[in-house]
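Sorry to interrupt, but I need a hand with the structure work. Could you write out one complete protein record for me, on any chain you like? Just paste the record in under my message, thanks.

. . .
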Amino acid sequence: MTFRVCWQLPESWRAAAMRVSRPLILATSVTLAGLVAAVVPSSTGSSGDVDVPTDGGDPNGYVIGQHDHSTVFEPVPGVIAGNALVEAFDDVDADGLPTRRVQMTWQSNEDVAAADSEASMIHSDDGGFTFPSGVNTDTGAGWFSKLRDGSIIGVEFIPRRVIDDHTVELIARRSTDNGRTWKDLPSTFTTDLSFDESKFDRGIRVHRDIFYAADGSLLMTYYTTYAGDPGYRTELARSTDGGRTWHRYATVATFTDGVWMGESGIARAANGELVAVHRTGTPGGANVGLIYTNRSSDDGRTWSRPQPLQITTASGEPAPTTGVMPVLRLLPNGIMTLTFGRPDNWIAISPDGLGHSFEQAQTTYVNHPRVNASFQRFHGSSGNGAHAVVGANRVLVVGDNCAPSWGCPETDAGFTIDGEYRVWKKFVDVVAPNVGKIDLLGKYEAGTVTIDTDMNHADARLPETGPLGAIDGSADWASAAVQGRPRGDGTYTVTLDRTYTLNQIGLHLQYGAPSAARVEVSTDGETWTEVLDTGTVTTYALRYFELPDVEASQVRVTVADTDPQALEFLGELELYSTVDSFENDPVGQVPRGYTSAIGATVTDFDVDDSRHVMRLTDAWIDKIASARWSSDPADEQSLAFRVNSIGYARSFAFTVLGSTADAEDVPAYHLNVGSDGSIGWYSYETQIWTKLAPAGTAPQRVWHELRVDATLDGAEVFLGGESIGTVEPSTLGITALTGHRFASSGTSSHYDHFLIDDVEQS
């Protein structure tokens, strides 16, 4: 059966340019408890300095872009709410479209060893934007994982009781409706060693990750102290019955370099190895020490010797080396993220997804008393928190404002935020090189992209399995297009909304299993050219393959596993082209590659069939909104883009930049879309605007396609693919063409508001 969907559905330029030419200095730092930590610049969209020229990130680099934090829950005074945790699982919405269902919990009990858990849970059905479910106080907290039968299991941090020297009864729950309702799951853990009751209450602490081993069993981390141990050790438990019984499987890290190892986060790296990061401390001494790491290449059975984790900041200033609650996640785009805390809350990335070291560390949340007594520097936010993957290049980070019971005592004052209990969330975008990502899912939803495939296997327990699973931004095991008939190749064909010049493809096949794929492209649907043969690969996230620039309006992926009895999986497909789509840009930041920007940010609302666009807003009467793209000098340059003028727009200026014998970044061809819908060209010699197209040609609140094909002597202007005229250079003596600029019309106008998308300069 074939799955197919096809829905139908300025005069002040020189002065303003001088005002926006100064650089923005970003090297700001503060000293924290003897450590120097990088301060994260506020996003342009929310900063108080949005009128200061700002450069976007490197389009060929790895960039972290933080959104502002918001409060998820704030209790009445005196009620505890802290130690927030979060997970996200694949689901579909009411229209059958992919989404990530986010599950967030926090505790209301005091943070002491003997306390019973008092937890609350809420859910989001839109990837963490809103939490309309209400607070459920009957579900417990702890650590959760989605199983391959579609159910979710959760195991609480503190067991219910010790049965004997080798066995504890766990507090576990199971949900078969994606976390909406829960039932108790009888569960025990058994070890072949003996608990040391004098050093450890209730045997073990389950912390923190539950995940699949290669053989299909479940592995779960915990820490404990056995008889004779000088301090905590972290271990793995194994279950072969879906979490009903667990048995000691392996020691991950034990007493090393005079410190104990506990509170460990484990994740699978991009090459399939397991990476662990540990909180450490000194027996009888400090309970927060250096962060350590080690890894396993045999699926968790044996582990390397723990070593201090190497972390660097983007600024080059020393990063914190201590921390609690380390959480590791491998994003679908192959980048590994690490969150940890105390002091403060932090995020860092491992760009290659291997987790050997982490870079670009930066704070995500800071709340502490301003008094510099050493013990108070650890008050305020507990540093406990977590993050969940909610998109191919996005995580949702959560944390607290005050540590339960001890974080904000009445004797403290002068907090950087305040001394009240609160749990918060924020999105963090983590993007990889290449700004040409095509939004396949957004265009599919809008009906401008269609899918033709025989990989349409469905499972009622796993609604994320299906053709859209290959373009939903999730690399989880079941989120895939699956060929349900063994002994047959699976084919997956995407018909694009236009002909693109593709330069990169991202593929994720069956999670953790050897697979192979071939990729072909076509411009007419009849003649196909093979551009990629992966050979046999094993992927845990997207793997990116560079392509020589190739024209394509259709892309066909054929999945052919080496095992003839295996089902064919296409876990994820990404396409990249020479069109700057802003899909691989952090929201709220200046688009990557643009410089000297004022009022220019990436946005994810007011959009069309691409869910990220550039927003250009002019809120000033003494300057213009502007964004510049610089390129190597050329004799010819084509600039194509889409634009939509909304909100009090006077006119929108688009300029091909150039240089003369005497100056750089001059307007080689200066054009505009007027508020009346006309299109004009400006001469700096005569200081006169000439209309190329009359009023009403390009009305406001409608998307328009514009293109300027320029040489040193003249340019032709196109609207919707049709020529509307030719023009001479706006500035005499142009010797090279060097980029483009988008801008509002002049300093006297404000509240001009434009959306720009699909920019291609060649």
The radius of gyration is 28 Å.
